Amino acid sequence: MSKSKKTVLILLDLILLTVLGFVILENQDAFNLDWNLGRVERISWMKEVLPPYLFLAASLFIIMGFLGMVMILAFPKQYFSISLNEGTKGKLTVSPSAIEGYVREVLTKNELMKNSKIQVKIYKRQLRINVKGEIVPQTQVIDKTQGFKNEITTGLNTYFGITHHILLKVSVKANHLKEKPSNPRVI
Predict the structure, then answer these.
(1) How many Cα atoms are found within 13 Å in the side-chain-facing hemisphere of 65?
(2) CA-CA distance, 151 to 144, in Å (whole number)?
(3) Which residues make Cβ contacts (< 8 Å) with residue 106, sequence separation at least 6?
(4) pLDDT digits (tens, 9 = 90+) for 96-148
(5) DSSP letter string over 87-105?
(6) Under 8 Å CB-to-CB from 153, ≥6 apart: which residues?
(7) How many CA atoms are closer than 13 Å to the CA of 26, on its beta-carbon side?
């Protein structure tokens, strides 16, 4: 998790904890407990600061909760296998690791990338394949990349029988240069 994400989550957690702490202070008389935490009314400046703070913090959490529900409802479901053939005796499924292995095999056959990272996401009607890595310097890189995409699409359609819409994204992280041996200079 990134530092910015951690910072935002910690700040939101602190706001939530203070709101809940003030709720506990205000409602501690509802239970007959042996301990008494004190009253908020005893502190004069809290009477002016506390109501707007509680209102704004509660409003913030209501809006965030509503947006979270909308995002959860709108987020597409991700599947963990593709059903290829459903017969009377069972069904045949393909997992993302099998598709990753096929894409990696095509990559090594074409010698297009080194140190590649392949990520497969399966949705109901779509298959997303992201390939990131260091491209090997060669001629006609764009044509070879397009040929690689076509080979993956046709291979998945014929070999696996996948009829989903396939989105294949190839991202180049860096050029993979062959290291030249360094010969020390002799004088």
Answers:
(1) 7
(2) 10
(3) 148, 151, 152, 155
(4) 888 888 888 888 888 778 778 888 888 777 788 888 888 777 777 778 888 88
(5) -SS-EEEE-HHHHHHHHHH
(6) 166, 168
(7) 11
Give domain 82-175's CATH number out of 3.60.15.10, 3.30.420.40, 3.30.70.1350, 3.20.20.140. 3.30.70.1350
Q: Can you list the alpha helix ranges (DSSP code H) found in the chain? A: 3-26, 44-74, 96-110, 141-155
DSSP character at residue 26: H
Q: How far apart are CA 152 and CA 150, in angstroms?
A: 5
Chain centre to alpha carbon of residue 155: 27
Neighbouring CB atoms inside 10 A of 95's CB total 13
Token pair for residue 141? 């890189």
Nearest of 131, 138, 139 to residue 171 by alpha carbon: 131
Q: Is the pTM of this model over 0.70?
A: no
Mean pLDDT over 80-95 rounds to 67
The domain ranges of the chain are: 3-73, 82-175
For 140, half-sphere exposure in the C-beta direction (CA atoms, 13 angstrom radius) is: 7
pLDDT digits (tens, 9 = 90+) for 146-179: 888 888 888 887 877 776 777 777 766 666 555 6
